[in-house]
Amino acid sequence: MKRIIFALLHGVGVTRLAAWWNRKRVIILCYHGVTERGTRGPTDPHGIHVPRPLFESQLDYLRSRYHVVSLRDYLAARREGRKLPDYSVVLTFDDGFRNFLTAAAPCLARRKMPASIFIITNNTAEGGDPGPDRAWTPADDRTHLSWGEVRALVSGQDIEVGSHTCSHTRLPALSPEETGRELRDSYAAVVENLGGAPPALSYPKGEYSAVLSRLARATGYACAVTADGGANDPARTDPFALGRTLIGDKDGGAAFAVRVSGVRDWLARLGSIFSPRAPGASSARAEDAPLPAAGSAENL
Ligand SMILES: [Zn+2]
After folding, report:
1. How far is the CA of 27 from the centre of ligand 1 (A)?
2. 53 CA to middle of ligand 1, Å?
3. Which of 55, 87, 118, 134 has the most CB atoms lying inside 10 A of its own CB?
């Protein structure tokens, strides 16, 4: 039913209108992985790994209607008060799955599209350069990049690396000391292994609060991303609570167009008029919960 609604919305141009409405804001997409599997695997009950052909069609859609910019460029433009191209989109990948190297990165490289990956530093093993053989294997959908593979990605194409904390634990469930350590130690691990500019942070399960975003800022992170839907206003959106739009393995055609255009946020805002929710609290459901059927506001 929802797919019919979104096909209708897309068919009559509502997505084009919403995209135009949001053209000065920046949509940040949140992926987890890209797989060469044709169907959803047994280890992926929530469909967070997008089949590579679908991923390529999504990138081609973005290339035809949007400007894919890097998170670094987005932040620099904000800092300098500089305008980004209209219809700017940022690509991000959470959790640091190895299929980013073997399935997603080649697609991005072919299109010269930048992206950010957020790694769980405790899951990032020491390890050498991946070498020339980067063929995808089913294990890549459940294993994580090594530091050697991360370095190879960063040196080979426009990939930025951020922290997804040390252990991917829900930060609100931790004591202030433990939270501080999760933010500091993962920050240090990224900087020590990769050098370069201060990294960005992705809150595990998208859970954040005013206290957490202040702590992220104080730790030295460049910015922080959540799983709250919504376009990011260059002037108004808190850079330590940036909204992202989740993309899953069912987001083809109209569903993808709906997600990228920001129609869902309109619907979500409509939904929240009827059932208001506490800021930041419910985003916990977003990241690791079953991806909602595209388009239904009450599932956000
Ligand atoms: Zn995660």
Report:
1. 19
2. 23
3. 118
Contacts of 217 (CB under 8 A, 6+ apart): 224, 240
How many Å separate Cα 185 from the centre of its chain? 22
φ/ψ (deg, to 5) at 94: -95, 150
Distance 255 CA to ligand 1 centre (A): 22
Whether the full predicted model's pTM is greater than 0.85, yes or no, is: yes
Contacts of 155 (CB under 8 A, 6+ apart): none
Q: Which two tokens stand for residue 268?
A: 């979500």
pLDDT in tens, 227-281: 988 899 988 899 999 999 999 999 999 999 999 999 877 777 667 766 655 544 4
Q: How far is the CA of 17 from the centre of ligand 1 (A)?
A: 32
Q: What are phi and psi of 73, to 5 degrees?
A: -65, -40
Domains of the chain: 25-299 (3.20.20.370)
- Residue 193 Cα, ligand 1 centroid: separation in angstroms? 20
The two tokens of residue 75 are 């932040």
253 C-alpha to center of ligand 1: Å? Answer: 25
Pairing of strands 159-163, 33-35: unpaired
pLDDT digits (tens, 9 = 90+) for 23-35: 999 999 999 999 9
- In this prediction, residues 195-199 reach a mean pLDDT of 92
Separation of 230 CA from ligand 1 center, angstroms? 18
